[in-house]
C-alpha cells in the first residue's frame, strides 16, 4: 500500500508537470507556429525527456548553446526529436519537438582539423587521435597548389555539363568509366553521376578520348597532375600515421601506394541540385524510413586504406558517429581543405584501433555539388592483416589475413551499406596468441 501511495504521488507530480507544460505552450506563439521560440515556449517535459534520453541533465528551459562548429544554415537535427536552431552570433536557440517516426538524428560536433604546417610530433599525435575517435579529419595548409585544385573543378564541371550522350562515351562503368544513378552491381542507386578511373594517366585518357567535344589531352593532363599530388599527400599522411603509431618502419602504410601495381582510384562525383526548398528539406531530413528524400550516395565505408576528399563549397557529406549508428554529423564544406577518412584496410591493419568511418552524401542544396576522391589501395596481390605491433593482450587479433583481390571480390558481391569487414573478423583468439609469441 505504501508503494502504491508513493507511485500515485509521483504520478500526480508528473501530471502536474505535463499540465504546466501544456499551459506554457498554449500561451505562447509556438503553439500557433509564430516566430522564434522564447524562453517561456520551452516544453519542460519534452525538453527534460530529450536530455534524459541522451544521458544529460540540463535545465528544462531554453538556454543559448555554444555551437562547436560554425554553420551558415538553420541547424536541423533529427532523432526521436527534431531540433531547430536559429543562429545568434555563434549561439543557437534550440527547442525540442517530438518526432516519433525516426531514430536518426543530426548532431553538430567538433570534427578534427589538423594543420599540416605544425610541428610534426604534434601533427602525428592529432592524426592518430582523430583516426581512433572519428576515422575522419580535415587537413589545412596541405601544400597542394590552388591552381591544380581549381583546374580539376573546372574540368569536372565542364564534363558533367556535356550532353548525356557525350558523357556516356566514357562509359559504361565496369566499374571504371562514366556512370549515372547506379552504384555497383547489386541494385544500389544514388542521385549522382560520376567518373571513376585507375589513378594513372593511361586509364584516364582511355576513358575520355572518345568524347569529341572534350579536350581529352587537357583533361587527362589536369587529372594526372592532381593524382601525382594526391599520391605525395597520401604518402606524407600515411607516414605520419606510421610514426604516430610507433611502428618500427614508418613507411609500412605508404609502401602500398608506392608499389607500381597499386590499385588506387580517382573518382569525380556530381550531385545535381535540389529543385525546390521542399526537396532541400526532405533531403536533409532523410532517414531510413523516408523514401521520398534524395540520397546522393548512400551509407557506406570505403574499402581501401585511406581516402582524400575535396569538394566545392556545397554541403552534403555526413559521417556516422562511431559511438552511435543513429547519429550523423554534417561536415562543413571547405574547398581549400582536404578531408581524410580511414578505410576498411587501415582499420584491419591497425587491428581495429583506427575506425573505418561510415559516411554518406545527401543532396541538400540548390547548387550542384562536385567532389573529388583519391582512394589509396594496395596491389591486388597485397596481403592485408593486422600489424604485430597492433596486437596485444588487451587488443587481441581481430581480423584474418586477406588479399586485396579477395576483399574486392567480396565487396562487389555485397550491397553498398554492408559491413564487409565483419566477414573477415576472427571468432577466436588462437591466432592472436600465436602471433604474440
Automatic annotation (TrEMBL):
Residues 261-378 form the Fe2OG dioxygenase domain. One of its GO terms (biological process) is gibberellin metabolic process. The keyword Iron applies. Residues 1-21 form the signal peptide. One of its GO terms (molecular function) is gibberellin 2-beta-dioxygenase activity. It catalyses: gibberellin A1 + 2-oxoglutarate + O2 = gibberellin A8 + succinate + CO2. PROSITE patterns: FE2OG_OXY. Its EC number is 1.14.11.13. It holds the Pfam family DIOX_N. The keyword Oxidoreductase applies. It comes from the Eukaryota. Its cofactor is L-ascorbate. Keywords: Dioxygenase, Iron, Metal-binding, Oxidoreductase, Signal. InterPro entries: DIOX_N (IPR026992), IPNS-like_FE2OG_OXY (IPR044861), IPNS-like_sf (IPR027443), Iron_ascorbate_oxido_reductase (IPR050231), Oxoglu/Fe-dep_dioxygenase_dom (IPR005123). PANTHER family: 2-OXOGLUTARATE (2OG) AND FE(II)-DEPENDENT OXYGENASE SUPERFAMILY PROTEIN-RELATED. Belongs to the iron/ascorbate-dependent oxidoreductase family. GA2OX subfamily. This is gibberellin 2beta-dioxygenase.
